[in-house]
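Recap from last week: sequence in, structure out.
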Amino acid sequence: MSDSDRAIPDFAAIEQAVRRLEGLAHRTPILTSAYFDQRTGAELFFKCENFQKVGAFKFRGACNAIAALTDQQGRRGVVTHSSGNHGQAVALAARLKGYPATVVMPDNAARVKIEAVRDYGAEIVFCEPNTPARAAAVERVLAERGGVFIPPYDHSDVIAGQGTAARELLEDCPGLDVVIAPVGGGGLISGTAIAVKHLKPDCRVIAAEPANADDAARSFRSGKIEPVASTTTIADGLRTSLGELTFAVIRDHVDDVVTVSETAIIDAMRQVWERMKIVIEPSCAVPLAALLEGKIEVTGQRVGIIVTGGNVDLDAMGTLLARI
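Predicted structure tokens:
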């Protein structure tokens, strides 16, 4: 990556991302729920990125990063690694620009996600299901074929692209007191914090993650990046450690990082399915779970929640339903 890719983006970069994404990404709707307002004592506004292209916010960051490439760079191809939403996002964003894409995926990735990446036109290179194997496979692809690496979160244009969701949220729902988003690698919460603190500095920005993958909370408290110690969480999208860029933004612009139990995540997801009639994946139930567990004081406040995605693996639905 270039030095500019390793720089922390500012709000101007998010505004540039808005222009790049026009006509490519959806402006997703914001839903409300009298039921959840009553449960939490607050006014909740759900920014529904489960209705985004590829079914997740990840499309914003991947599309912005790929749209930022010169045509000469893009024609060399884009390369990434992912077991899920980011891979789909890169595959679709590359197809829309007419660029070839290669996605390194673990050989135990869900069949539905493998098929989606292929359907979006990317070539898949399989590897063993661990971080070193992913990195080695990416390096091998780049050495053999060339191309531009688009990482899942620790990249300036990816972070800026993710920040466009919060910009839309504040534009459509002025006067928010709190914005909450889940945190895994930190791309979304970083872009969210940059956007919110520029547009409404007194609005609190809070990250939420599973207690079973609490590296962001530990990093926030210690002041240094703490690796994931455990990944035994149903919220599979939040099992990643923070990157250098995302940690720096969280350290400087996020007000708090809270953790929630597995029971609360599952219960929040089920309640959204039943009460709001929308499909969300476990990772995106984490912010609501934090409210329902009382981890964030929001009584009488206006609260924005980034609903990150709705890509539930239907092959695993029986097992999932058995847990709730």
